[in-house]
Amino acid sequence: MRAWRSFPPEQRKLLLRFWKAASGFWRRRPSWTAWPLTVALIVIVLLQLGVQYELNLWNRNFFDALGRRNAHALWYQAALFVPLIAGSVTLAAASVWARMTAQRRWREYLTIHLILYWLAKGRYRRLDYAQQGRQNPEYRIAEDARLATDAPIDLAVGLLNSLLMAATFISVLWTVGGNITLSIFASDVVVPGYLVISVIVYSSFITATMVFIGRSLTLVIQSKNQAEAELRSSANVLRTTAEGTTILDSEAAARGELWRALRGALGRWRELCMQLVRTTLVLQTNTLLAPVVGLVLCAPKFLAGSMSLGELTQAAAAFVLVQGAFNWLVDNYQRLADWISSVDRVATLLLALDELCMREQFISATAPPPVEPAQIRTAVTSR
Fold it and tell me: Residue 155: pLDDT above 70?
């Protein structure tokens, strides 16, 4: 709820308008395919989590056997690794099928809804009279509708997986890591679950850094998408001008507009490039740093003999998994910004069509009732 209130009122209005149209996928006729796909995705996430947990235990047992130089245990773990990998690969393939099928079905529903709403009563001819959302409706229907339905499936599946991953492997960190005793000002201080505290602090710092650096990414992506749409539109105008199907002052004016649109699109790409350079610095730093931080945090207990080699590798792997789950926002910040931008463009188109629809209703309500043929005959006879 707090995250929802953090959006500006205008942004919330656009998100609500998009959801009102897009949620029909689960509420109307095609819902008999939507719900089974949704359930399948959830089941696959749960099964993948189970396999990941077993792989984490395998990691511990394998390195413990290696540390004891136990050949029999090593061969047993090697044999156990085969079905675990087979299960993981099978579930990954099933996840791709379920996600892409759900995305395709959802896009089909939303695109058909947009096209029918756009074509109804010739609204596509009168869209220029709307106050906003009238620019490049074809691009919004074709491209923005695709992005607006692709990203939520991936983001939702990833978020669910991250939440379950964090809940599962925090218990591993708490159990395996245990407590640590620190000497502070000549006093021994016991820190319970120090690995859990460490991963929360580390993840919070990385997430806060990404949010600060990428705070304007949504606006930059939105400007880039608009510039790309204007470039396509300018090229189309030039083509129709050359074919003689559009009346303009001259073909030179259309050429000039095309070059201006190209410069605008390239400028927006340059802005996006600089934004992604900054966010990539955070992402790459976290990718390289997180495994090392986990090992360094576990090293004191391993050197003291209170943690085995297997427990060291298990805890370090769990640390990476938990911080990855906590840093879901960091990993998906660009995708989330791109999705919000596309949702805004689809929603503004819907609001523009809503505006035309309300005008139609107003005109229909205030127009005089149609004169029936019988009334005409009566009027003529009375004369």
Answer: yes
Look at the block and give the residue holding tokens 């591993």: 172
- Domain residue ranges of the chain, discontinuous segments joined by +: 2-368
For residue 32, count other CB atoms closer than 10 A to its CB. Answer: 7
Query: What string of DSSP letters covers 244-259?
Result: T-S--S-HHHHHHHHH
Q: Biggest alpha carbon distance in the chain?
A: 116
Choose among 179, 198, 199, 197: nearest CA to 189. 179
| Cα–Cα dist 17/11, whole Å | 10
Q: How confident is the model at residue 373 (pLDDT cuts 50, 70, 90)?
A: very low
CA distance 150 to 343: 11
The SS3 call for residue 368 is coil
**CA 368 to chain centroid:** 50
d(CA 180, CA 178): 7
Is residue 340 within 8 A of residue 7, CB to CB? The reply is no
The answer to whether 159 and 375 are in contact (CB under 8 A) is no
Per-residue confidence (pLDDT) for residue 127, from 0 to 100: 80
Total number of residues shown for the chain: 383
CA gap 313, 303 in Å, rounded? 13
Average pLDDT, rounded, for the chain: 83
Q: Which residues contact 52 (CB under 8 A, 6 or more apart)?
A: 88, 165, 321
pLDDT beyond 80 at 26: yes
Confidence of residue 332 (pLDDT cuts 50, 70, 90): confident
Strand partners, 189: 182
Q: Which amino acid makes up residue 299?
A: A
Percent of the chain with pLDDT over 70: 88
CATH superfamily of the 2-368 domain: ABC transporter type 1, transmembrane domain (1.20.1560.10)
> CA-CA distance, 69 to 72, in Å (whole number)?
9
Distances (CA, A) of 242 to 198, 231, 245, 255: 65, 17, 8, 10
Q: Where are the alpha helices (H) located in the chain, listed in sequence order? A: 2-5, 9-22, 24-27, 31-68, 71-119, 123-126, 137-139, 145-177, 194-213, 217-242, 251-303, 309-326, 328-366, 373-382
Range from 77-86, 198-207, 322-331 that averages highest in pLDDT: 77-86
- What global pTM score does this model have? 0.76
